[in-house]
Amino acid sequence: MKTVSAAEMRELDRRTIENGTPGEELMLRAGQGVADIARDVLTAHNGKSILLIAGTGNNGGDVFAAATDLAASDFDIEVWLCGSRSQVKGDAETHLKKMVRAGIVPKEVHSENDLCPKMPPDILIDGLLGTGSHGAPRGFMSPLIDWINREQQSAFILSIDIPSGIDADTGVAEGSAVQADMTATIGLPKTGLIRPEALPMVGNVEVIDIGIPLEFVEDTTGCPEAALIDRSDIFIPRRPRDSHKGSYGHVLLIGGSTGYTGAIAMAARAALRSGAGLVSVLTPESVYPIVAQAAGPEAMVHPFSSLGKIPEQLSNPWKNADAVLIGPGLGRSDEARTAVEWLLSHLTVPLVLDADALCVAPETIAAAACPVVLTPHPGEFERLFGAPVTNRWRQAREAAGITRQTVVLKGAGTIVAVHGHPLAVNLTGNPGMAAGGSGDVLAGLLTGLLGQDAKPFDAAMTAVYLHGLAGDIAAEIRTQQAMLPTDLIDALPDAFRFLKVR
User: Fold this and answer.
1) From 481's CA, which of 216, 222, 368, 375 has a CA 20 to 30 Å away?
2) 3.40.50.2300, 3.40.50.10260, 3.30.450.40, 3.40.47.40: which CATH number matches 6-223?
3) pLDDT in tens, 115-151
């Protein structure tokens, strides 16, 4: 999804208003979207109390519209206004009056002595500073933001449009900034939200559609460097009634070694959950029984005596594989490097290089006979390209240029990079996924999608979005602290369901 600057979003709002939709209506739609998200969060967390904190600008107006919409619900609602009611003007003032008529009178907060909610909030909605704010928060805003961040220990923090304190264009926080669990951005995502500098503050990003005409969006340049991966970008076609297992590809996964059997088994299970028709696994004889049991009865697991036998193996039952993954648990050795080089020079179907398979020169990858997707985390990226990751956007773009392949730079704000194309940035997922094995799940899911004839860039975007979404679903059930990578696999059906895939 295209991301826009604050100025571009103001222009889109202006054109929409001139086109016949009043600003009051746009603010109402924004507030209703925020209210819907708040209801979903409270339901998921078995919560009841909401504290909404408004500034005196248009972000505050979104708060008032959301509170009015929530007033009909069975929640305990409290609204704070940082400033005085006399400072609120325009459409925000209209929605303030509607909120008061609905029975919600805001409490004006001016000092730290005022920061005492009626009851501990289950969700705290931040509508203090909007996209027009620049520089460090001034006056009482700064201690109020610090107080909000302390509340994060017990409350879910939902920011409206951008977390208060960060720049909507650069993502930089020059002073205190709200550390949100989720940002409900209005109309279109702001470019600052997807920049690496903002990642500690934005959390997951939900885009609230307020009815900006599509032709206006298409006329807007947006950020030429990068875009946000949104559910609207993900297309998974329905499966024809007369299809069969051969319709959905045969994928081959190569990996595993003594002490590292779980990686390839998790990749296989994720590939099965991707919808692939057939999943085969090649693993060393020494660990074959363990992998065969862990991968599950649906996977076809076969042993090989040595990696040097891979060319011979691939000339037989797996020569018609539709996508291949090598790397999870493979181990680092000269034989592994030789096997990867052989695959790069002989395969014609998509090849995913993950983990220990990221062991060959970038120039060798660039000369591959097949489409390749690389899935390094920052440490593997440094090993492969010879430099630590200090600028994720620039280095992902350069890596895609050097290899002429699809690069998935994992981590918070996973980046999908293809030469000559804007970066695609993913903001689904959470810190609970920071555990060994999460990457193996992503690799298997990605390979399964490639085997179903998805183009590498599309498959990578879909895989990282679904992977992060499964992580968010798993965290709701297991908590971020206690979730395991295998929980991601179990959550994939719900992630697909979220995208309305049957």
Assistant:
1) 375
2) 3.40.50.10260
3) 999 999 999 999 999 998 889 999 999 999 999 999 9
